[in-house]
Specification:
With 182 residues, this protein is an all-alpha fold. It has 9 helices and no strands. It folds into 2 domains: 4-89, Rna Polymerase Sigma Factor, Chain: A, CATH 1.10.1740; 99-178, Orthogonal Bundle (Arc Repressor Mutant, subunit A).
Length: 182
């Protein structure tokens, strides 16, 4: 990981439009930014797209860099925002999921429950889907997920509870054979 002072010098030159300094910045910070995106997105093509968006935003926002923040903090904030935008843009509601057709599948077919779960998630409203993904799939703590989603913890908990309730109802309706009876 490059030293903060080195990055500040390179970033200072890049803010003035020095393309060689910007190329050096990319070379110094790409591994860490790539690792951050890989930790949150499984699809390699999406990671590459996110990296491209990220460096474009860094270049376009280079004149807004505040030297009092520190280089890594500024670069990390852009990475978080790019990832947040990615999750917001990913509209998973457009799905060919048909509750009736899946409900009619006999259990002997061996329905792929991971795929079914993903399809069920697509039917959640965007905020519920984001919160459930962050806490339920990615395993983030409610505190971290609330910071990431820019909402307070009680709002996050409300969205998470609503998401769980909606998913439970959908799975119960479509796959009664998989639901444990109490």
């Amino acid at each position: 990981m490059p030293q903060q002072d080195e990055l500040i010098d390179v970033l200072e030159s890049a803010t003035k439009g020095d393309k060689a300094a910007f190329a050096s910045l990319i070379e110094q910070a790409s591994d860490q930014i790539h690792a951050y995106f890989c930790a949150h997105v499984k699809n390699a093509q999406d990671v590459e797209d996110l990296l491209q968006d990220y460096w474009l935003k860094v270049w376009k926002g280079r004149k807004t860099y505040r030297f009092d923040l520190g280089a890594w903090r500024w670069l990390a904030a852009i990475a978080v925002n790019v990832l947040r935008d990615h999750f917001r843009k990913t509209d998973l509601r457009s799905s060919c999921f048909d509750e009736r057709s899946l409900a009619q599948m006999p259990p002997e077919i061996g329905v792929d429950m991971e795929k079914v779960t993903a399809e069920c998630l697509r039917h959640l409203p965007p905020k519920q889907r984001l919160v459930f993904y962050l806490c339920g799939v990615r395993g983030m703590t409610p505190r971290d997920a609330a910071l990431f989603a820019k909402m307070n913890r009680s709002t996050l908990r409300n969205h998470l509870n609503q998401a769980r309730k909606s998913l439970r109802a959908l799975v119960t309706r479509c796959f009664p054979e998989y639901v444990k009876r109490r």
